[in-house]
Design goal:
single chain, alpha+beta, two-stranded antiparallel sheet, two-stranded antiparallel ribbon, 2 helices, 21% helix, elongated
């Protein structure tokens, strides 16, 4: 699934963690339904929606996707 950014086994009750990037909050329900169709034994125990992801470190891109600079946490924390 192209939306999935992280899929990992974890300790605890759930045992499994999926992080996905979706376009809208309404897409969460469809994403979960699709996961449950593909994995019939899957149970969604909890979910968290994050509307803005702060970039801790990384590249600033121009409209063409080319790197034109970088972001550090100190730079970003002053703008949030």
């Amino acid at each position: 699934m192209p939306e999935v950014r992280l899929c990992s086994a974890v300790s605890g009750t759930a045992g499994f963690l999926v992080i996905a990037w979706l376009r809208t909050t309404e897409d969460v329900t469809g994403f979960e339904a699709h996961l449950c169709e593909q994995l019939p034994d899957l149970r969604v125990l909890d979910r968290t929606v994050t509307l803005i992801t702060a970039k801790r470190m990384g590249r600033l891109l121009d409209p063409h996707g080319r790197a034109v600079g970088h972001v550090l946490w100190d730079d970003l924390s002053t703008t949030l």
